[in-house]
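pipeline: protein-struct stage 2 | run 1193 | Argininosuccinate synthase
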Amino acid sequence: MSDQNRLVLAYSGGLDTSVAISYLKERTGKDVVAVSLDVGQGGESLETIKQRALDCGAVEAYVVDARDEFANEYCMKALKANAMYEGVYPLVSAISRPLISKHLVRAAHQFGADTISHGCTGKGNDQVRFEVSIASIDPTLKAISPIRDLSLTRDVEIAFAKEHKLPIVQTEKSPFSIDQNVWGRAIETGFLEDPWNGPTKDCYSYTDDPAFPPVEDEVVIEFKQGVPVKIDGHDVTPLQAIEEMNRRAGAQGIGRIDLIEDRLVGIKSRELYEAPGAVALITAHQELENCCLEREQHRIKRDIDKRWAELVYDAQWFSPATQSLNAFIEDTQKYVSGEIRMILHGGRAVVTGRRSDSSLYDYSLATYDSGDSFDQKSSNGFIDIYGLPSRVAAARDVKFGNGIEVPENSVE
């Protein structure tokens, strides 16, 4: 049963959403329930954020350590799909929004709210991701954005905080807009809005400069049905695997991305990303699939992976199309088990070894040495049948004078 006098706010603990608590109550007349999730973004503790929300006027504060849930149910789906939007971006923000939306809806049900609020602008992708996800879970809930819908600009926020004596410590504003979680980090705005300007070292936090790397780092990652389960022989959870590869690949400057990106709302945007763990794990997972997926299945999956990334980027995590693709992708992973050895160094993750009991690589078929079990005489009949359509078509072209012209040899 919803309460017309309550709304749920996606609360980060920063200036925007702290001011939004009192601002929303004043402008809408509704009490605010603040919802905060830890998805591996680092920074302040959930308890600190919870207390700040209450001090800023929230009637309730709902906080969740969602790191394992995010890694297990969201990052691993992206890994199995080798998800890279436009071929390079590992969907850092796009995969966290459905999880956050799910907990926003859960809080709305728990606390009897009829409205959900988020802090997105009208130019970005996340407003669509939040609101489409919320509507997909519970279409009876309303959604609003104080920045987009209530003209909540930064100067208005600061004046409002001073006037209402809100317990917010003002610090120097970062020149960038940053969103981060355990899967990666997104950096935009400021001088990066001119695509001719190169990134400066203060843009980066998850990665060190690849031009000055430490000694190369060899790592062995073991997968079971598409999920990393061991690193260098020790057991890891999905969260631990991402965190360890963030640290090791990040030290080598792996996973820096500079992209002119096609946003869902129709704008081209210049984005920087850091995703060292995601890039290293996807690189390893793709190579294991090279060994373990049957040829036609693998060809189809490459197309499916691309569409999956586009759908998730475009706010379709909960859509029937994405759910159907998930079923196909999950089925492909039943034999994606084994070990991948990689060298991490100077911005690159290079696979140097593969080993799998379920690999379709057959040494006796592939070798050119003694012990070769491939019957090369079989290729004669294969070529004859495989080339038959081309020969028939070529004969027709010759009959009607449209054959391919072959230049005469010229000898001087």
